[in-house]
Amino acid sequence: MAAKLVDTHCHLDPQYFPTGADDVLARAAAVGVSGFVVVGVGADLAPARAAVALAKRIPERIGAAVGIHPHDAKTLDDAAYEELSTLARMPEVVAVGEIGLDYHYDHSPRDVQRATFARLVNLAREVKKPIVVHTREAAADTLDVLAQEGARDVGGIIHCFSEDRPFAEKAIDLGFDISFSGIVTFKSATAIQDVARWAPLDRILVETDSPYLAPVPMRGKPCEPAFVVHTAKRVAELRGQSFDQIAEATTKNAERRFGRSFATS
């Protein structure tokens, strides 16, 4: 049997796949992607509800993550927090996220981003589930919030890793794994590729961030979970390891991190 893969971060809600996720999941399964963490974030909680519904329908293969993206941090009022807190406690939900800081676009004020991030780190600690972190141009503040709010208690994932080795070392020390997206296949991504070569084998994951960031050789196409195969192949090349070794290790790491197994077929 060929080694299986887990796409640890994909967005499959109807705004991206209006005809549903079944065909997307079938194409992924056909190339050996057997598990998925479906992330539900958006301007409201509809994507979170959709992610949970999909995980309920296909529980053997899908876990959901629910959170508030930093772009939408300003939308987190008490009513939204209460619903998110309820969703986060559901057994189908394997993580709180993606949450974090994004200083590139600043769609929400930075102080609001930090406050929302801190509040949701504490929600993850309360429900005892790992954190999926989005960070862009906010490396120092991201690490600061994680450290100050006790994120080490639950650990988590730096998703779509786009920082450098010093950041990766600090994140790993805080109990976080490093997840590589299609960016690691880009010719210009030398700092990320350096981290992929260096990172401990038991602390790496692969993802698509579907429908974004399609890897080489699929650039220019809407990304989907089947494409995580290309990311895993590139990580294997960078490390001088076989594809099967990377598939086996990243799947084992995903199952450890999310506290569940994923179907083998």
Give a written overview of the molecule:
GO terms for molecular function: DNA nuclease activity; hydrolase activity, acting on ester bonds; metal ion binding. Pfam families: TatD_DNase (PF01026). Keywords: Hydrolase, Metal-binding. The chain has 265 residues and is an alpha/beta fold. The protein has one domain (5-258): Metal-dependent hydrolases (TIM Barrel, Alpha-Beta Barrel), CATH 3.20.20.140. Helix content is 40%, strand content 17%. It contains nine helices and eight strands. The protein has helices at residues 22-30, 46-57, 78-88, 110-127, 139-148, 165-173, 190-198, 228-239, 243-258; strands spanning 5-10, 33-40, 62-66, 93-102, 131-136, 156-158, 176-180, 204-206. Helix 4 packs parallel to helix 5 and helix 8 (228-239) crosses helix 9 (243-258). The longest helix is centred in the middle third of the chain and has 18 residues, at 110-127. The N and C termini lie close together (10 Å). The mean pLDDT is 96.
Which spans of ≥5 residues are poorly predicted at pLDDT below 50? none
Strand order of the largest sheet: 1-2-3-4-5-6-7-8
Shape: globular
* Tally of separate helices: 9
Percent of residues in β-strands: 15-25%
- CATH arch. level architecture: Alpha-Beta Barrel
Counting DSSP E segments of at least 2 residues, the number of strands comes to 8
List the secondary-structure elements in sequence, H or E. EHEHEHEHEHEHEHEHH
Structural class: alpha/beta
The CATH H-level homologous superfamily: Metal-dependent hydrolases
Approximate helicity band: 40-55%
Q: Over the alpha carbons, how many angstroms does the gyration radius reach?
A: 17 Å
CATH class: Alpha Beta
Q: What is the average of the pLDDT values?
A: 96
- Please give the alpha-carbon distance between the first and last residues: 10 Å
Write the CATH fold name: TIM Barrel
Largest sheet: 8 strands, parallel
Binding site for a divalent metal cation 2: 134, 159
GO cellular component, one term: cytosol
GO molecular function, one term: hydrolase activity, acting on ester bonds
Binding site for a divalent metal cation 1: 9, 11, 98, 209
